[in-house]
Amino acid sequence: MKKISTKAIAFYGIMAAFSLVLGYIEHLIPLPVGIYGIKLGLANLATVVSLYFLGAPAALTLNFIRIILSSLLFGNVLSLSYSLCGGMLSCLIMIAVKHIRGFSCVGVSICGGVAHNIAQLAVAVILLDNVKIAFYLPVLVIVGAITGLLIGLCALPLVKNKYLRSSYGISE
After folding, report:
1. Would you say 144 and 114 are in contact if contact means Cβ atoms under 8 Å apart?
2. Which among 6, 54, 36 is positioned nearest to 18, based on CA atoms?
């Protein structure tokens, strides 16, 4: 069993709190877009950074905890179903894509943003029993790519920060 340093445990806590704060901030920002459900995905910044700093199991765990807590604090059962499916598929896709040569954390984040929106649309089709809402797919793919790009660009300097890694005892 791998021993986790106290600094790494502190970093887990910081990332969990960071993702909740970003989720709350996002909850407060109304987007003037005429399509229901479009968000910036700010909390995914913590997921991307966790994936690169702490690895896949930690990123999945932190993402799951964030989704549950955010839904309890700021959402409802319906938002939990959308967030859980979108967030977990997004995280799994990012884990898979991270191992493909040529993908930076920006490309990984873009794939995660697109996967998140596709999963949420699939949940909407199932829960609403209406396949016609799938016409949102092209718009949601574009929005997912744009928000994924923005989150990836924000994550890039954090992921490359060697001082941050060494401060929390996180190996490359």
Report:
1. yes
2. 54
CATH C-level class of 6-167: mainly alpha
- Residue 83: half-sphere exposure toward Cβ, Cα within 13 Å: 23
Q: Domain residues of the chain, as ranges?
A: 6-167
Q: What is the pTM of this model?
A: 0.88
DSSP line for 20-81: HHHHHHHHH-----SSTT----TTHHHHHHHHHHH-HHHHHHHHHHHHHHHHHHH--HHHHH
Dump the DSSP string for 74-128.
H--HHHHHHHHHHHHHHHHHHHHHHTSTT--HHHHHHHHHHHHHHHHHHHHHHHH
What was the pLDDT predicted at 133? 86
Q: What is the mean pLDDT of residues 62-85?
A: 88
